[in-house]
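To whoever is on call:

I kicked off a structure prediction for a single chain this morning and the downstream step that reads the tokens threw a length-mismatch warning. I double-checked the sequence; it's 78 residues and nothing unusual in it as far as I can see. Pasting both halves so you can look.
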Amino acid sequence: MTTTMEKPGSYSSLPWSSLDEATGGDLLLPYSPRYEEARRVWNGMIDRRPAAIVRARTTDDVVAAVNFARENGLEIAV
């Protein structure tokens, strides 16, 4: 799941720690060491900077990420 960040820091007040606790996968935010590598896509013409990247490991991780996005009015990209 990715959410596009329109303004740097505009999503910093969201309860990211609750999403991190609810998932067994990785939650990567713009300040995370692996964020830059994870946000790259195979098409080099696309340069997006999502507010968060969730690397879900289980179906429950996906459910938690989708619920978090819905509760906080975030767009989802897969």
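Update from on-call: the warning came from a stale cache, not from the record. Cleared it. Sanity check on the structure: DSSP finds three helices and three strands in the chain.
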